[in-house]
């Protein structure tokens, strides 16, 4: 089957990639905050598909962004490994949980952690 | 070192559950707990995200949740945006970048609360046409 992508769709995907890339490069995050809602709103994705597709795109986005940051000499490689490798275990547990529970209580807990972190950063 | 590992574990669970790379927690953890500058924390977070997102994507793919062509296009077409974002971050002062990041995670927290409250309502009335 020949894959012929409607140009409007390709443009939307490019816009999502560009916006997510800017966001990721500026803030040091993956960009899922941008990608997931845009896939849902613009391309009619269902939530879990948006989440999974976003994670796959983030592999490239974060790798590009880390490479550019590396050129600035900002990357602490050992710290990245000490955080990133245990985080893989966390992700396995998180994706397992996502299929089995409502994440409501956990969302609220993480929201509280984020608010506390924001206050701490503003006070630094 | 134990703190790095704990930050990693907690951020990984968030990534798996909510579809983000975990950087939202890596960055504040690296600044507040480890004492990196905002610029170093963001850069280090990006590298730490790569294995996390990779394993998450492989898992989600087994659940049939990854549209590979779209993911590839979004990922590869992000290059210009990524370069622009990193250059912009490095042009900003640590204070400006840290303040911007604090605002970002407050917005994400607000979004998490809103989603959680909406899910609470949906469990009462499961069908809400046009809610997305």
| pLDDT < 50 runs, ≥5 residues of chain B | 124-132
Question: So how many helices of chain B?
Answer: 6
Figure out the total of helices of chain A: 5
Helix content of chain B: over 70%
Estimated radius of gyration of chain A: 17 Å
Helical amount of chain A? over 70%
- Largest sheet composition of chain B: none
Q: What tags apply to this protein structure?
A:
heterodimer, A: 124 residues, mainly alpha, 2 domains, 0% strand, globular, B: 132 residues, 80% helix, disordered C terminus
Helices and strands in order, then pairings?
The complex is a heterodimer of chains A (124) and B (132).
Chain A: H1 7-27, H2 32-43, H3 47-71, H4 77-98, H5 104-123
Helix pairs in contact in A: 1-2, 1-3, 2-3
Chain B: H1 2-18, H2 23-34, H3 38-62, H4 68-76, H5 79-91, H6 94-122
Summarize the structure in words:
Chain A has 2 domains: 1-75, no CATH class; 76-124. Chain A has 5 helices and no strands. Chain A has helices at 7-27, 32-43, 47-71, 77-98, 104-123. Chain A is globular, with a radius of gyration of 17 Å. With 132 residues, chain B is an all-alpha fold. Chain B is 80% helix and 0% strand. Chain B has helices at residues 2-18, 23-34, 38-62, 68-76, 79-91, 94-122. In chain B, α1 runs antiparallel to α2. The longest helix of chain B is centred in the last third of the chain and has 29 residues, at 94-122. Chain B is globular and about 40 Å long. Chain B starts with a helix and ends in a 10-residue tail after the last helix. The chains are: A mainly alpha (124), B mainly alpha (132). The interface between A and B is large, with 97 and 102 residues.
């Amino acid at each position: 089957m020949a894959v012929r992508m409607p140009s409007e769709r390709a443009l939307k995907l490019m816009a999502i990639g560009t916006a997510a890339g800017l966001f990721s490069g500026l803030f040091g995050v993956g960009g899922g905050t941008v990608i997931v809602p845009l896939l849902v709103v613009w391309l009619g994705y269902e939530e879990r598909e948006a989440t999974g597709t976003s994670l796959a795109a983030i592999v490239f986005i974060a790798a590009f962004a880390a490479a550019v940051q590396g050129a600035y000499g900002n990357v602490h490689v050992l710290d990245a490994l000490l955080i990133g490798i245990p985080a893989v275990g966390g992700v396995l547990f998180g994706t397992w949980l996502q299929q089995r529970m409502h994440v409501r209580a956990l969302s609220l807990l993480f929201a509280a952690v984020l608010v506390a972190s924001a206050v701490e950063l503003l006070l630094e | 070192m134990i703190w790095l590992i704990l930050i990693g574990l907690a951020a990984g669970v968030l990534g798996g559950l909510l579809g983000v790379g975990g950087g939202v927690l890596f960055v504040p953890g690296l600044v507040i707990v480890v004492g990196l500058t905002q610029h170093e924390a963001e850069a280090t977070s990006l590298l730490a995200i790569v294995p996390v997102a990779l394993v998450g994507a492989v898992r989600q793919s087994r659940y049939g949740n990854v549209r590979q062509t779209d993911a590839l296009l979004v990922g590869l077409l992000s290059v210009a945006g990524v370069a622009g974002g990193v250059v912009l971050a490095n042009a900003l002062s640590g204070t400006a970048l840290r303040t911007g990041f604090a605002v970002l995670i407050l917005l994400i927290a607000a979004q998490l609360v809103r989603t959680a409250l909406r899910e609470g309502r949906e469990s009462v009335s499961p069908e809400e046409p046009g809610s997305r």
